[in-house]
TrEMBL record:
CDD domains: HTH_LacI, PBP1_sugar_binding. It comes from Rhizobium sp. ZPR3. Keywords: DNA-binding, Plasmid, Transcription, Transcription regulation. This is LacI family DNA-binding transcriptional regulator. SMART domains: HTH_LACI. The keyword Zinc-finger does not apply. Residues 10-67 form the HTH lacI-type domain. GO terms for molecular function: DNA-binding transcription factor activity; transcription cis-regulatory region binding. It holds the Pfam family Peripla_BP_4.
Length: 349
C-alpha cells in the first residue's frame, strides 16, 4: 500500500482514502463494530498506523483463544474455589476467549502430564507438582506453541510463560512470625503438608524453617508429616506425630487437610491445645477460627490468581489490543491473613 504523507493531523477521511474504503467503514473498524471483513480491517488499521492517527487502535486480528484450565482433585476447597472463579470469569469475558475445564481425579505427575499432552486448546492454566515428567509435558506444549501459566504451585525452570500466585516463601515466613508471637513460650512445632513434591508446599516449609532459624531459634521443628491433603490420612499421621511429640505447642498446616488437623487436635493427645495456623479461607476454617481451634489462616486469593492467569494468557496473544506490550512473566498475588475477628459475612465454599 502506498502511503500518502500528510502535513497536518490525519483524519478518518484520510485513513479511508489511504485504505480505499468509505469513512463509515473506518468508523466501524476503529470502534470494533460488526460487518467488516478481516482483510478490510487489516487495511484500515495499517493505514491508520502509517498515517499516525492519534488514537488507540484495536488489534488488527483478534483471534479466538481456547483456554484449557486443568484442575486436579476438585473436592479440595482451594481447587473448588478456583473452578468457581474460572466459571465466574468465563461469563464476564468477551467471545475472544473461551474457557474449557479439564477435571482430573488425582494430581500424580503422570496424570497431569497426560492431560497437558492431550490438550487441543490454544493455552493452558494449571497447577502441578514440580516433577521431570511434568517438565517434559510443559516442554511439549511449548514446542507446539501452546503457552502454559501456572497457578497455586509453580514449576520453576520449566518453559511455562508465567506464574500467577502468591509468594509461598513469604507465606511460610508469616506463619513462623505469628506462631512464635502467639505462643506463651518456645516449644516444638509439627508441620503437615501434602507432599514436598509441590513447590508451593516445599517453599512454605522453607520460608517457615528459615524464619525460625533467623528470628526464633529457640523454637524447634518436631517433624514434617506428609498427609497427601487427605483429611483421614492426615488425621491418622498427626495422631502418631502427637504421640511421639506430646509436648508440641503448635502445628502449621501448609496444605488443605484442615479438617484432619482439627480432628487430631480434638483428640487431646498433646499436653496442651496447640496454636494452629493453616491455609485457605473456607466455611470450615472460618468455623474453626470462631471456635478457637484454629488461630490463623493464610488465604491465597484464588479469585485474583484466576484473573492474573487469564490476563497473562491474553497478553501473550496480544489480545488486550496493545501491540508490543511488555508484561511480567510472574504476577505475584497478595495473600490475606484471617483471624476470628475479620471474617467475611458470607463464603461460597
Amino acid at each position: 500500500m502506498k502511503t500518502t504523507r500528510l502535513r497536518g493531523r490525519p483524519t478518518l477521511f484520510d485513513v479511508a482514502k489511504q485504505a480505499g474504503v468509505g469513512s463509515a467503514t473506518v468508523d466501524r473498524v476503529l470502534n470494533e463494530r460488526s460487518n467488516v471483513s478481516e482483510d478490510v480491517s487489516k487495511r484500515v488499521l495499517q493505514a491508520a498506523r502509517d498515517l499516525g492517527l492519534r488514537r488507540m487502535l484495536p488489534h488488527s486480528h483478534r483471534r479466538m483463544i481456547r483456554l484449557d484450565v486443568v484442575l486436579a482433585r476438585p473436592e479440595l476447597p482451594l481447587i473448588g474455589r478456583l473452578g468457581y472463579e474460572f466459571r465466574r470469569l468465563s461469563s464476564a469475558l468477551d467471545r475472544s476467549i473461551i474457557i474449557h475445564r479439564t477435571i482430573l481425579d488425582d494430581e500424580r505427575p503422570e496424570t497431569l502430564a497426560r492431560a497437558l499432552t492431550k490438550t487441543t486448546c490454544d493455552a493452558v492454566v494449571s497447577y502441578m507438582p514440580d516433577h521431570p515428567v511434568v517438565h517434559a509435558a510443559v516442554e511439549d506444549l511449548s514446542s507446539r506453541g501452546v503457552p502454559l501459566v501456572t497457578v497455586v504451585s509453580d514449576v520453576p525452570g520449566s518453559t511455562r510463560i508465567g506464574y500467577a500466585g502468591i509468594d509461598h516463601i513469604k507465606a511460610g515466613r508469616s506463619a513462623g512470625y505469628f506462631i512464635t508471637r502467639m505462643g506463651r513460650e518456645p516449644g516444638k512445632i509439627v508441620i503437615l503438608c501434602n507432599s514436598l513434591g509441590f513447590q508451593s508446599h516445599s517453599d512454605r516449609i522453607s520460608g517457615f524453617t528459615r524464619y525460625l532459624e533467623e528470628k526464633a531459634p529457640q523454637w524447634t521443628l518436631a517433624c514434617i508429616v506428609e498427609g497427601g491433603d487427605d483429611r483421614n490420612r492426615s488425621e491418622l499421621e498427626l495422631r502418631q506425630a502427637f504421640k511421639a511429640f506430646p509436648q508440641a505447642v503448635a502445628i502449621y498446616n501448609v496444605g488443605a487437610a484442615n479438617i484432619g488437623v482439627a480432628r487430631a487436635i480434638r483428640a487431646d493427645i498433646l499436653l496442651q491445645r496447640p496454636i494452629f495456623v493453616g491455609h485457605e479461607l473456607t466455611r470450615k476454617t472460618a468455623a474453626f477460627l470462631r471456635e478457637g481451634i484454629m488461630s490463623l489462616t493464610i488465604d491465597q486469593s484464588p479469585e485474583l490468581q484466576v484473573r492474573a492467569a487469564v490476563s497473562l494468557v491474553m497478553r501473550h496473544f496480544e489480545a488486550l489490543g496493545f501491540d508490543g506490550v511488555s508484561f511480567p512473566l510472574d504476577a505475584e498475588v497478595p495473600f490475606i491473613l484471617y483471624g476470628p475477628e475479620n471474617l467475611p459475612n458470607t463464603l461460597p465454599f
